[in-house]
Amino acid sequence: MDATPAPYGTTTRTPTPASASAGPVPTTMPAPAPTPPSHEAHPSSSSSSAAAAAAAVAAAVASSATGAQSRPCDICRQRKTRCVREEGRDKCVMCSFHGQPCTYLRGPLPRKRRKATDPPEVRPQTNGSGSAAAAGPPPAPMPLDPQEEITHPSPELLEALSPSLAGSENIAHFSPQPSLLDGTLGLHLKTNSEYVGNTSYREPSLLDLHRPSDPSVRSVRRLDDSTVFLIHRDRETSSEPQRIADLDAIEKLVHPLGSTLVNLYFRIVHPSFPVLHKKVFLEKYARSYHEFSPPLLAAVYLIALDWSLYDRTLATSSWQPDQAALEALALRTMSDDMKRPKISTLQAGLLIQQRFRNNTWTFTAQLIALAQGLGLHVDCSDWAIPEWEKGLRRRLAWALFMQDKWGALVHGRPSHIRLDEDWDVRPCRVEDFPETAADEDYDPEGSAEVVVGRELFLRQIELSLILSDVLATFYTAKATRRGGTLDQIGTVGVAELAKPIVMMLREWYAKLPEALQLQETRLKKLSANGSLHLSYISIDLALHRSLVRNISSNAPPELRAAIRTGARARLAAASNIISNLQMEHIQSFWGFAASAQLAGIGSFAGLLWATSDDDAEAMYYADRVEEYLWSLRVRAQAAPFAREALRMLEADVGGLGAVRAAATTGLHGEMKM
């Protein structure tokens, strides 16, 4: 790529540093036998209390001697509780109470201690079908590491199945063994957490004194000296049957290819967009798809369908899931889920927004409000929650930050997140990412590399911080209004403001590791590096767009020439990036902003044409516009985001398609800005 031209102006200023084709069918583990999975993976929110369950156990013990003498089921063995089955029932009392499968497939648990902060491991269990709506053979089991054989469900999964509130005494009674989800916040299926802000009418010091009449409906959770959450039980009792029905409808649309789509998602999308906890998701999915919120499951399926050619089963199947119906379900259930927001709601929203058709500024605003209610905008480093959840929260927070900043640029709107005032999230570090190179043992064709994806995500965060500076400096309403900041300081002042940001961009590019260079691709591996370089050049173009717009009539000629020469070099660099994209780049995961970023290159060329000094320069940029439109056209079939960019330029950006015609007929002088 062409070297970045020297910064503008002569005064030296210290820059502020930026913060922070088909592969083999996966090997699978056999599904456990002979007991089929139960369809009662989740009780409704109106389930009996833990005390009622204990009474039922006592009654069953008194009435059934055989039950007391029988071998404990897998769940009771794991929980270390007495296993009692009433006469004539196919489930023990505890499994019936929690709505869990009652199986006798495993022997005594291995005596192995594990840290509460360790990531969970994938368990070889089948993904139980939910109802008659998903009739047919059960979905294929999830691909697992052939080196790893797990003989019992993990504590965090058992905890996720429990209807008890986080931190309640019931958990200690039924699950004395340390669990990964013990102490987590916002990750339970049937509760939602609410951050208590500093100006709320709820005074945190008084909340500590409050004892609700029904703790099962609402409880108070203090995480540190100044941070308090309210934990609410999902109120609508009718929501649970609807949730199960929605999940069954979603699964029916993809059955029996659900596990294949999940595998595709984690192979291709997750490495560079890590908004999920992979091992927790896979373990829950292996247990039952009923463990998820409907919009999250639908979003994972929906995005994965874009890479159906990278799985032999999907690529050769004569039947394909109904993508439109799946998208409609994802959007409807997302709206329902926002009434009782959880971390899974935010995860689903971020995934849905990566499809450019669903990316609206209003949707982004809703997600930001939702995230603030979950406390994702504040630092969680000292909170009394597990370390792995802190990492997940940081990744989600910064993914939302990127969504906000790029959304503001794409939609031409003010950013919702004010970095210096209402954003107190520590930058992500390597420790915040649970997956490592060891997770790439299963290495099919078309996968993305985990470690490279992690580095790419971190670099995208750095770029979004630079973009935040560009937006705050050059694109606020106060700066751009007539007589505003940019008008007051003139062309020289605007160039001085741009200088430190140009230096930051140059420094960012110079520090890119070899693995993230555009030309760095591996055989039979997809590479998301193209999206990173497109983001970089898009920020550079946004900066120069403001510079070109703010060249005044009394600007020094040498400065005017320097700005336009720099802008011309940026346009050439952008075109060079597009022409150097390989199929490994084009077929990888691109975020929601890619189509608008591509359209922005063409729009920038149109701006340079419209502000040309003479007809020769105008003709030069008219040729560049034509060349760029052609480069998009030849890539449109392979890249949906390029097709959308072409549509945006030819349909939504008025006059760009007629640039050459205007230049050749001498209309440039009349259209010149």
TrEMBL record:
<feature type="domain" description="Zn(2)-C6 fungal-type">
    <location>
        <begin position="72"/>
        <end position="104"/>
    </location>
</feature>
<dbReference type="InterPro" id="IPR036864">
    <property type="entry name" value="Zn2-C6_fun-type_DNA-bd_sf"/>
</dbReference>
<feature type="region of interest" description="Disordered">
    <location>
        <begin position="1"/>
        <end position="59"/>
    </location>
</feature>
<dbReference type="GO" id="GO:0006351">
    <property type="term" value="P:DNA-templated transcription"/>
</dbReference>
<keyword id="KW-0539">Nucleus</keyword>
<feature type="compositionally biased region" description="Low complexity">
    <location>
        <begin position="1"/>
        <end position="26"/>
    </location>
</feature>
<dbReference type="GO" id="GO:0003677">
    <property type="term" value="F:DNA binding"/>
</dbReference>
<dbReference type="InterPro" id="IPR050797">
    <property type="entry name" value="Carb_Metab_Trans_Reg"/>
</dbReference>
<feature type="compositionally biased region" description="Pro residues">
    <location>
        <begin position="27"/>
        <end position="37"/>
    </location>
</feature>
<dbReference type="InterPro" id="IPR007219">
    <property type="entry name" value="XnlR_reg_dom"/>
</dbReference>
<feature type="compositionally biased region" description="Low complexity">
    <location>
        <begin position="43"/>
        <end position="59"/>
    </location>
</feature>
<dbReference type="GO" id="GO:0008270">
    <property type="term" value="F:zinc ion binding"/>
</dbReference>
<dbReference type="GO" id="GO:0000981">
    <property type="term" value="F:DNA-binding transcription factor activity, RNA polymerase II-specific"/>
</dbReference>
<dbReference type="GO" id="GO:0001080">
    <property type="term" value="P:nitrogen catabolite activation of transcription from RNA polymerase II promoter"/>
</dbReference>
<keyword id="KW-0479">Metal-binding</keyword>
<feature type="region of interest" description="Disordered">
    <location>
        <begin position="106"/>
        <end position="150"/>
    </location>
</feature>
<protein>
    <submittedName>
        <fullName>Transcriptional activator protein DAL81</fullName>
    </submittedName>
</protein>
<dbReference type="GO" id="GO:0005634">
    <property type="term" value="C:nucleus"/>
</dbReference>
<dbReference type="InterPro" id="IPR001138">
    <property type="entry name" value="Zn2Cys6_DnaBD"/>
</dbReference>
<dbReference type="Pfam" id="PF04082">
    <property type="entry name" value="Fungal_trans"/>
</dbReference>
